[in-house]
Amino acid sequence: MKEHVIRMDRKHDIYISEIEAGKGDYFFVYGQVSSRVDQANNLYGFITKYANNGDTIWTHTYRHPSYNQEDYFHYINDLIEEDNGDLTVLGSIAPIGGKNEVWVFRVNSEGCFGTDSCYQFTLGDHDVILPEPSVIKCFPNPTTGKVSLSGIPLNETYNIRIYSIDGRLIVSNKERNPSEIDLSHMNAGIYLIQITGEKANTTLKLIKI
């Protein structure tokens, strides 16, 4: 048994989607990281490759160049390691209060797009797939506390994340077949509810009064 503590500075918040074993003596951690600079909160997808002893081999953050505004979420949902070490990555992109779009890209074993140099911040100019319009809704909106969810496909576990309007992650959990969300313990304001799963991906704007 071995324990390793991963430290993040106070300017960053991190949400881990998955920890996945690689094809060698290493593993991958991926999800979303936020970077707060000069009152702005930028949300990146990230992938970090660790050696099995806990040492960092490389880490990169990813945003799509066509969706590089501050009000866009970028998130890494899944990855597949090929036999040659390349990674096929499934991500998602969503504007604040808007619908998710599926983002698919491929990087080499160093997490780069095949360039001579590879910086920590990487713009992935790869396919963005527009999904069918989301039918997931929440009501009542505005709400004083609990809201009901409709239109979520059943028999699925979803990541439920609640953000403040300035992009701060407030709540993060996993639920199977979620039917309601409780905001009664939160202050009045505007919140973003991000619902992510294999069968549905959407971001809802909710007003708490």
What does this structure look like?
It is built from no helices and 16 strands. A hairpin with a 4-residue loop joins strand 15 and strand 16. It has strands spanning 12-21, 26-37, 40-51, 56-63, 72-81, 87-95, 101-107, 121-123, 128-129, 137-139, 146-150, 157-164, 169-176, 180-182, 189-196, 201-208. The chain is an all-beta fold and 209 residues long. It is elongated. It starts with 11 loop residues before the first strand and ends with a strand. The protein has a 5-stranded mixed sheet, with no helix packed on it. Strands 5-6-7-9 form a 4-stranded antiparallel sheet, with no helix packed on it. It has 2 domains: 12-129, no CATH class; 137-208, Immunoglobulin-like (Sandwich), CATH 2.60.40. Residues 119-131 have low confidence and may be disordered.
Please give the domain count.
2
Number of strands: 16
Q: Can you give the mean pLDDT?
A: 79
The N- and C-terminal alpha carbons lie at a distance of 48 Å
Our Rg estimate from Cα atoms comes to 18 Å
List the helices and strands and how they pair.
Layout: E1 12-21, E2 26-37, E3 40-51, E4 56-63, E5 72-81, E6 87-95, E7 101-107, E8 121-123, E9 128-129, E10 137-139, E11 146-150, E12 157-164, E13 169-176, E14 180-182, E15 189-196, E16 201-208
Parallel strand pairs: 4-8
Antiparallel strand pairs: 1-2, 2-3, 3-4, 5-6, 6-7, 7-9, 10-11, 11-14, 12-13, 12-15, 15-16
